[in-house]
Amino acid sequence: MANYTAADIKALRERTGAGMMDVKKALDEANGDAEKAIEIIRIKGLKGATKREGRSTAEGLVAAKIVDGNVGVMVEVNCETDFVAKSDKFIALANKVLEVAVASAAADPESLLAADVEGKSLADYVTEEGAVLGEKVVVRRLARLEGATVDAYLHKTSKDLPAQVGVLMAVDGTGEAAQTVAHDVAVHTAAMAPTYLSREEVPTETVENERRIADETARAEGKPEAALTKIVEGRLTGFFKEIVLTDQSFAKDAKKSVGKVLDEAGVKATAFARFRVGS
């Protein structure tokens, strides 16, 4: 007869994030000893790490932190299932990754994974914690922005899951107005997913290719030669409005561009980063 209860199973699942059958087997092997069962789950999980290497990690979360109002750090940590993504154990692991990212001032995921955590590399720490969870866990992306004012916005696409979209927004001004507009533009960015901050950032070859497509399309539609230049430039402007942050119509007031909103606040956006889990 098993010397543990359904409550013991529930408690151990909450502590480890492991599946029900894995927890039950571990408790059976440990004769009901919860601490021993955790050790068993960890050991078996590490043995299975190699088998998990090829698995897809399309779930997870985005976490961010602002330091002293002018530095923003954001990480995306992935796992295999939404069940694990919303577990306390995984959320704690992602927060630990964020904590290390802030403390180490790492500029890329490789440097972050090499950072020290309790006498081991973060990469090893994540592998061990993933072993307990029973899933492949990946630190996929890291962003670090500095500016006069930096704001972070995290968005839940499902109320049952942690944040799936995250944005860091840096502007060149300080004070309440700068903070407010940085936040408003961060929220806009989460929703509208711009690719570039300004037109100047769009690669020349991308612009020229779009111009060529617009020209060929207009000619195929039989537009008059005399009107081609104006038509092409108009379509190119529309293209910029889709992918360039400052050209986009502001989500809270479509009559204004994001650039106009920033101008009215007396600031310029200097950088942004946007993560969406799995994309």
From TrEMBL:
SUPFAM superfamilies linked: Elongation factor Ts (EF-Ts), dimerisation domain, UBA-like
Entry keyword set: Cytoplasm, Elongation factor, Protein biosynthesis
Record's keyword annotation contains ATP-binding: no
Family: Belongs to the EF-Ts family.
Taxonomic placement: Bacteria, Bacillati, Actinomycetota, Actinomycetes, Micrococcales
GO MF annotation, one: translation elongation factor activity
Highest taxon listed in the record's lineage: Bacteria
Record function comment: Associates with the EF-Tu.GDP complex and induces the exchange of GDP to GTP. It remains bound to the aminoacyl-tRNA.EF-Tu.GTP complex up to the GTP hydrolysis stage on the ribosome.
Name of the protein: Elongation factor Ts
Pfam families xrefs: EF_TS
Primary localization: cytoplasm
Record InterPro entries: EF-Ts_dimer_sf, Transl_elong_EFTs/EF1B, Transl_elong_EFTs/EF1B_dimer, Transl_elong_Ts_CS, UBA-like_sf
Source species of the chain: Arthrobacter halodurans
